[in-house]
Amino acid sequence: MEVVDIDHVALRVTDIDESLRFYRGALGLEVRDRDRFENGETPFVAVVTGGRHLHLVPTDDEVDVGGEHVCLLARSSEEDTWDEAEALADEIRDAGYEVENGEPHGRYGAYGYDPAVYVRDPDGRRVELKLH
């Protein structure tokens, strides 16, 4: 066996509608499987980032996000992505979501060192938005 990629990551969420407002509304991710979720065919609603899915799995249990985070890669159309990262942070704040103090910062990831912004989803989960 050879592991070649990530298919999906499942995230437990306490309010599916509020989570969709963040992931679809604020971040612009495409929603899949909403009808199948509402019909009881799947226990999640998926949002799509590139070819990968985040499965938003509703739970009545408390969600302890601890130190975990998910990093979403955003393609930049600019040569100087720092200005774009600043604008992204302002856009997320204006949408009513928390942006961590001092953001953006440069961070290393799979594609090297790029500007990134740490924000919080409705459950308090850290979401890194990395421009590349």
TrEMBL record:
InterPro entries (UniProt xref): Glyas_Bleomycin-R_OHBP_Dase (IPR029068), Glyas_Fos-R_dOase_dom (IPR004360), GlyoxalaseI/FosfomycinResist (IPR050383), VOC_core (IPR037523)
Domain VOC: 5-132
One Pfam family in the UniProt entry: Glyoxalase
Coiled-coil residue windows: none
Designated name of the protein: VOC family protein
Upper taxonomic lineage: Archaea, Methanobacteriati, Methanobacteriota, Stenosarchaea group, Halobacteria
